[in-house]
Amino acid sequence: MSSFWTGKRVRLRGVEPADWEVFQSFTEHSADQRAVDRLYPPRSAAWFQEATAARAKQPSTDLDLAIESLETGELVGSLSTHGVDRRAGRFGYGIGIGHQHQRNGYAAEAVVLLLRYMFGEQRMHKCEAKVYEFNEPSLRLHRSLGFTEEGRLRAHEFLAGRHWDAVLLGMTLPEFVARWELPQV
């Protein structure tokens, strides 16, 4: 029997306190930091140890998952949900893949696994994502998965000396099942 959380390239798992060094290494690429969130000042090993230990406890209802390569067993990134609205059936998510692991299909497979869970097991109806206008690889990824651009927040974030638009993308359950399968029992 295979795990629901395992695809052909990746396995989603809980964040472990020992993951702190890999998460710290992901911050060494400034463009990736900006693409996912923003550029942060350097942080100590102690900070990463504490922050990763807190993530490992998953104190909220949001998911915070590590993305592991099946081929190498390496931690290649993470993804998390946010803004889960059970009444409306809506949620958002974010994903980050370490620079050296990008363009290997890890993000696409991890997102499909997450969507399959949220739509098929958590009764969600819509997923929302926000991508900065300069992050063309992420915009291509989302469009290839079936997300639709729903709008823009103009001059929404300040990064690298200027304001950038945030592109709002969404996918509904019917749009998901038109491309991907729901979980099998």
Structural class: alpha+beta
CATH superfamily: Gcn5-related N-acetyltransferase (GNAT)
Fold-level CATH name? Aminopeptidase
Distance between the termini: 12 Å
> In which order are the strands of the major sheet placed?
1-2-3-4-5-7-6
Judging by the overall fold, what is the CATH architecture?
3-Layer(aba) Sandwich
Number of discrete helical segments: 6
Q: Could you list the spans in which at least 5 consecutive residues all have pLDDT below 50?
A: none
CATH C-level category: Alpha Beta
Helix content: 25-40%
Let me know the number of strands. Answer: 7
Task: Determine Rg (CA atoms, Å).
Answer: 16 Å
Question: What's the order of the H and E elements?
Answer: EHHHEEEHEHEEH
Give the biggest beta sheet.
7 strands, mixed
Describe this protein's structure.
The protein is of the alpha+beta class. It has one domain: Gcn5-related N-acetyltransferase (GNAT) (Aminopeptidase, 3-Layer(aba) Sandwich), CATH 3.40.630. The chain has helices spanning about 20-25, 30-35, 45-55, 105-120, 135-145, 175-180, and strands at about 10-15, 65-70, 75-85, 90-95, 125-130, 150-160, 160-170. The protein has a seven-stranded mixed beta sheet with strand order 1-2-3-4-5-7-6, sandwiched between helices. Helix 1 crosses helix 3 (about 45-55). It starts with 9 loop residues before the first strand and ends in a 6-residue tail after the last helix. The mean pLDDT is about 95. GO terms for molecular function: protein N-terminal-serine acetyltransferase activity; protein-N-terminal-alanine acetyltransferase activity. This is N-acetyltransferase. It comes from Actinokineospora globicatena. One of its GO terms (cellular component) is cytoplasm.
